[in-house]
Write a structure and sequence with these properties.
CATH class of the largest domain: Alpha Beta
CATH topology of the largest domain: D-Maltodextrin-Binding Protein, domain 2
CATH architecture of the largest domain: 3-Layer(aba) Sandwich
Largest sheet: 6 strands, mixed
Helix content: 40-55%
Strand content: 15-25%
Number of domains: 2
Structural class: alpha/beta
Order of helices and strands: HEHEHEHEEHEHEHEHEEHHEH
Number of helices: 11
């Protein structure tokens, strides 16, 4: 029996609809996703990446595995160049710090954030001015007065790395109070905190997560946070004080603000649906209790951005870092 014209037409329509549906199917990874960390193991970026990896696995947020890979060479340049040269590969993403700006500006490597595809700002990391709890600095004024009275260069500021965030903040403090510090670089925030506890340096600007254990143990004292507003977390840490009780540096007369990016980028030439996949993935990650606990444990600023707003923020921060590093003499020749 021959098929009727109607049945043939209906079959054609069905096939057309199926084809159209398939063409509109949302993109998703078809092989493991490499999550590049342009920093060493155990640091803040590595902790965040592995927290995300654990959340994605626990809650089955991806069909494919997420594999964290550390590429720390050249102050993170190794990781940035790896993703830059993976054009059109949507199975490679990278978590960035402010070394997104500082590394190319300080080293002159052939890389700029515009070589990548912006996905999302996950959070901003705070910086706090810390002193040893045994010192008589109970306020920013006490600290500034002591630093200005000390012989030039005798006040020691400990920090992570050279020509990176901690040293940039140190230069900003010097300019704000008209004093000169000796900056001593260490390999990581944990070591920096230990050096302050041992009175080998006079102060640090560690992230909250890097010094909270020593604050809780009564060894360190926070004086102010380099943000426009106090931190939001109200759970007591030490002596009945919470993160929210730490005043802003600006409110205490130290006009310096600095926050560090915790953002996601992907390889160049990503398509709209590939970007949307990762934006939605990270929205799901942010909604989990594990992520919220991680934000709380590190007293993060939980600002979230995507799209044009994120790109504009990154562009403005690049210009700001270029200005700060130029003033400090940190720019590589040619920048």
């Amino acid at each position: 029996m021959k098929p009727s014209v109607l049945s043939v037409a209906l079959a054609a329509i069905a096939m057309s609809c199926a084809s159209s549906t398939a063409s509109r199917a949302a993109w998703e990874p078809v092989r493991p996703v490499e999550f590049i960390v342009p920093a060493g193991t155990g640091g803040g970026a590595d902790q965040m990446a592995r927290t995300i990896q654990g959340i994605v696995t626990k809650h089955n947020l991806m069909k494919q595995p997420m594999v964290v890979i550390n590429k720390a060479g050249g102050a993170g340049g190794e990781g940035f160049l790896d993703v830059k040269t993976s054009s059109g590969n949507p199975h490679k993403i990278i978590i960035t710090l402010s070394n997104l700006f500082t590394t190319p500006l300080a080293t002159g490597i052939p890389f700029n954030w515009k070589d990548l595809t912006p996905v999302a700002m996950l959070a901003l990391d705070e910086f706090v001015l810390w002193v040893n709890a045994e010192k008589p600095y109970n306020s920013v004024k006490d600290y500034v007065d002591a630093a200005k009275k000390a012989p030039s260069g005798s006040f020691k500021m400990g920090g992570t790395g050279s020509k990176q965030e901690d040293q940039i903040i140190t230069v900003g403090i010097e300019k704000a109070i008209d004093a000169k510090f000796t900056y001593i670089p260490y390999k990581g925030g944990g070591e920096v905190a230990v050096q302050l506890v041992g009175n080998h340096v006079d102060s640090t600007v560690n992230n909250p997560i890097e010094a909270v254990a020593q604050w809780r143990g009564g060894k360190l004292r926070p004086l102010c946070v380099f943000d426009a507003q106090p931190m939001a977390y109200d759970e007591p840490i030490a002596d009945g004080k919470a993160w929210k009780d730490i005043p802003t540096c600006k409110s205490q007369g130290l006009a310096m603000e600095y926050l560090m990016l915790r953002g996601i980028f992907m390889s160049p030439k990503a398509t709209k649906d590939q970007i949307e996949y990762y934006v939605e993935l990270f929205k799901k990650v942010r909604a989990t209790p594990e992520w919220q606990e991680f934000m709380k444990s590190g007293a993060f600023n939980t600002t979230f951005m995507t799209g044009a707003d994120y790109a504009k923020w990154v562009e403005a921060e690049e210009k700001r870092h270029e200005g700060l590093m130029k003033e400090a003499g940190f720019l590589a020749s040619g920048n």
